[in-house]
Amino acid sequence: MKRPATCFAALIILSAPAAIAETQSYPAESFSQIEAVGPIDVIYEPAAAPSIVVEQAENDFSDIYLDFDGDTLIVSRKCIRDRSGWFNNVNINTKNDRKIIKVNGKRVPYYIVRVSGPDLDGVVSKRSAKLTANGVDSASFDAHASSSGDLFLSGTAKSAKLHASSSGDILASDFQAQTFDIQASSSGDIEAKSNGDGIVKIDVSSSADLDLESLGAAEFLIKASSSADIELSGQCSSIEIEASSSADVDGRDLVCRDAKVAASSSADVSVSASESVEARASSGGDIYISGSPAVRDISRSSGGDVDFGS
């Protein structure tokens, strides 16, 4: 059941010097997830009790939209809603890092929404929203960015899902998890860091990019297709890669013990394996192997190529 927060009167209005943004506090219920929708900046900090404070330089809070849907806090704007739902016939333009925002040609107020709470297990940023989640400490964390939404993450999780699509970006180089499920598509970009020896599953396609550093001896399972671009560094115990349709997987800086690679349809893959490698290159796929593995199982067909370096 939805429980609108904006139907309540603001609890506190704090005055500040002209050079500093005006602030307004809103009632906050318990939540474990945040969904940011539309051109708005949201910043989460861990705290013992939930709170919501909105900043606005001209003291115009008329367009802020807050809602609680179960354990999810929704942060958005009234101007992007209509009677039939979200974003029907809505055009959004932003400049100067979202500080200048126009919706359907009309300039709307710039907001920073500061949110605090004891637990955060999931975040969503979409439709040009920017959400920063600091100090995450979760057993299982789920992050989604889509439709030009941006996510900035710091903290730790035992397991994490990172999904970026439709030009959504997830910047999580200051966020570490022991196991990952990572998906990026349609020009989505992800930066991430793993710190355990568990499984890291990766599926990247349609011109999406992934840059991942591994601090532990993780097991990598990777699918890359349709001009996907993946860069890997650090350590791993084993790596399995399926690459096709002009995908590019650069794993030269990821030091692995064992590697299993298949490249086809003009895909390019480079890996480092110290003990064993199984490589299948076909239909113009190229595989480059470093690390001088003693055990080698190689297959080339239809213009595919496998090369070894030091």
UniProtKB/TrEMBL annotation:
<keyword id="KW-0732">Signal</keyword>
<dbReference type="InterPro" id="IPR021255">
    <property type="entry name" value="DUF2807"/>
</dbReference>
<protein>
    <recommendedName>
        <fullName>Putative auto-transporter adhesin head GIN domain-containing protein</fullName>
    </recommendedName>
</protein>
<feature type="domain" description="Putative auto-transporter adhesin head GIN">
    <location>
        <begin position="200"/>
        <end position="293"/>
    </location>
</feature>
<feature type="region of interest" description="Disordered">
    <location>
        <begin position="280"/>
        <end position="310"/>
    </location>
</feature>
<feature type="signal peptide">
    <location>
        <begin position="1"/>
        <end position="21"/>
    </location>
</feature>
<dbReference type="Pfam" id="PF10988">
    <property type="entry name" value="DUF2807"/>
</dbReference>
